[in-house]
Every structure is written in C-alpha cells, then in structure tokens.
Amino acid sequence: MSFDTLDYLFDLRGYAILRNAIDPQHLAELNDAFDKFPDLPYMGWYGNVQRLDNNGLAGLELQNIVEGGEPFEKLIDHPAWINRLHLYCGEKGTYVDGLFIDECFASVRRTGGFFPIHSGGQNAIVRNQYRMINGNFRCGQVNILMAMTDIGPGDGGTLVVPGSHKSSFLPDEVRALYQNRENYKTLPEGAIEVHLKAGDVLLFVDALMHGATERTNPGERRAVIYRYGPMWSKTRHGFEYSEELLARLTPERRKILRQDPRRLPGTQFGVLH
C-alpha cells in the first residue's frame, strides 16, 4: 500500500490539516444553518438535535447535528476526507470493512470558553486508540473538526500535543492537569495551538492529547465535529437517527449512519461465507 504526505503526517503527529476542504458555498450554507438555529436551553431539543454541552466551560454544543439539515448531511461522506477515514479507522480490507459516525455535533465557543487538555495514548482505550500494524492503520476513532469561522490567536483554537497518540505513560505534572480543576488552563510541554481558516479541517486521531485554548476575542468560534470509527461502533450518547433522515440519504451515507440491511423477522438474506 502506498501512502502520501498527509498519511505520513497523520502517523507522525497524530493529526493533519486539510486546507480549503469545504467549498465557500457549502460553508455559507452551514453558517446559515447555524444562524437559523433557535436559542435552546441546556438539554433542550430542536427536532432530533439536542443541546448537550460536554463541558460547561467549552461553550454550546448541539449534538446529533447531522439531523440539522442538508448542509450537515453532505458532510457524512465528504470527498475531502472520507477515503482517508476509511483507511485510518474503517478497517479497510477486512470482513468488518466500513465506517460509522458515533458522534457529531456543532460547537459555539464565546469569550472565556476553553476545553481542558485530555486524552493521550497512555491508556490504550480501544475506542480512541492509535495503531499501525503490518502497514495497516487500525484506529479506534478519528475526528474531523471543521472550522466554520477563522480560528486564529485568541479565538479558542484546538490544542494538540504532536506525537502523544503514541505515548506509553503520562508524566506526573501532566497528570495533575487532568486531576486539578485549577490547572485546567495550564498547557503541557509540547502543546501547540492549531490555527485554521474557515473551510479548513483538522483531522486527528482521538488518542492524540488535545483540548482548546481560552477564547479571549469577542464574537464566537464555530466548528462542526464528526467522529468516525469502525462500522461496528455505536453512538456515544445513545442517539438514534430518525427514519426521516435515513429515508432521504443516499445509500452510501445511510450505511455510515446505520448498517443495512438489518436482520429482521421475515427478511431474506444470502448464505454467510
């Protein structure tokens, strides 16, 4: 199997940047969808989208955002990343070949918002692990973070510690950042802030130590995050995709959200090999 420079950087650093991945028209459609969303209370629902903030310090999060309209549906199998995701975490070429989105949400971070540093390869959690075996990527989860606005200095950008997806242990001083809430804004040595232009995408394995700096600028940082894993995964928060959504998707997109055909009484299947 041959690999390109982005594959090399993903293996080396745990992340890669896809510049101008989302075209201007699609980007405008996504931001228009953001603008039209109602101001939901925490745990409030709008259709099959729920406001479910993961961390109160990080800002507003709209979970199951793929149900938010066609602009979000078009992200499911976006050509800028879908083939790479199939290679990295879709167990390509095996009997369980296929992808699944186990979490998808929109994030709005305003002044003062940040996200504590977390993850790293030291716990070897299967769901977010990084593995390269016999020339094959076998990652548990790979994230696509799409910038809906420019994310530069002071905007609350994503933090990463390059190479930490391969770490075997966590230094005591870094462990303290995990455990002591007063230290949440302290960054571990080696952490860098990733700056993106609207339409750029940060692709990273979830085993990579990551977080977000504090937003000090006025206004808001908008991003959409889709987390991909092997097709045998399940949604992180237990969301069920609506039949209305599944009915209007292309077969390729529907397969990523739900593996069909389902084996129900009365249905016919071929012989298993």
Query: In terms of structural class, how would the helical and strand content be classed?
Result: alpha+beta
Our estimate of the beta-strand percent is 15-25%
Helix content: 10-25%
Q: What do we call the CATH homologous superfamily?
A: q2cbj1_9rhob like domain
Question: Descriptors for this entry?
Answer:
273 residues; alpha+beta; Jelly Rolls; 8-stranded antiparallel β-sheet; 14 strands; 20% helix; globular
Descriptive overview:
- The protein has 273 residues and is an alpha+beta fold.
- The protein has seven helices and 14 strands.
- The strands form three sheets. Strands 1-12-9-14-5-4-3-2 form an eight-stranded antiparallel sheet. Strands 6-13-10-11 form a four-stranded antiparallel sheet, with no helix packed on it. A two-stranded antiparallel sheet has the order 7-8.
- Strand 2 and strand 3 (49-51) form a beta hairpin.
- It is globular.
- The model has no long low-confidence stretch (mean pLDDT 90).
